[in-house]
């Protein structure tokens, strides 16, 4: 795994395969390998002719761990992604993000439009705009002495996943404290590039993908049947929908 410096912070990344580049941004408490390699996304995209570049967001995976919540704004992490695109001299490329990574990817489109040619939002629908009210329970779950000490269902879900990915709980708690930076509906209307919003039909965390897609100038929705937030990540219909979208849009 390689790394580069983004505003003095060490950010890890990995490149898989050859072909047209696509940048992949993982979700909260995950990392590039768990979100994209273990789910066979890398294999699928490589076989479709894409060179995959995964990034470990700050505080995650092999990237530098930070404990100040002020260093985890989604806009800051979008700067890391745009910085990687510039560092690798990729030019405008498709960027796909899942969950927190989808919010980060959207800020890439807003703040660094010269780096992105198509936007794929996974696991995050209208709740990107409406926001969430469970951050405190997730933080409590992450900072609890053990999984057994966590009673809130959402807090348990995130703590269990964070343990599975061998994450730094204190870094994740700081990240959760500020990474859910709100995006206004009128800001989404400024994004002109082709945008796909893909969310599981049972995903209560992400919310309605069609309502979010309607806010983009050139947005379309993909409902991933019978999948919740966690199980949609590696779904075969999600993958085929993304490949079809990229081919149709020439991205």
Automatic annotation (TrEMBL):
The keyword Hydrolase applies. One of its GO terms (biological process) is glycerolipid catabolic process. Keywords: Hydrolase. InterPro entries: AB_hydrolase (IPR050471), AB_hydrolase_1 (IPR000073), AB_hydrolase_fold (IPR029058). GO terms for molecular function: triacylglycerol lipase activity. Residues 20-121 form the AB hydrolase-1 domain. Pfam families: Abhydrolase_1. PANTHER family: AB HYDROLASE-1 DOMAIN-CONTAINING PROTEIN, HYDROLASE, ALPHA/BETA FOLD FAMILY PROTEIN. This is Hydrolase. It comes from hydrothermal vent metagenome. The lineage of its organism: unclassified sequences, metagenomes, ecological metagenomes.
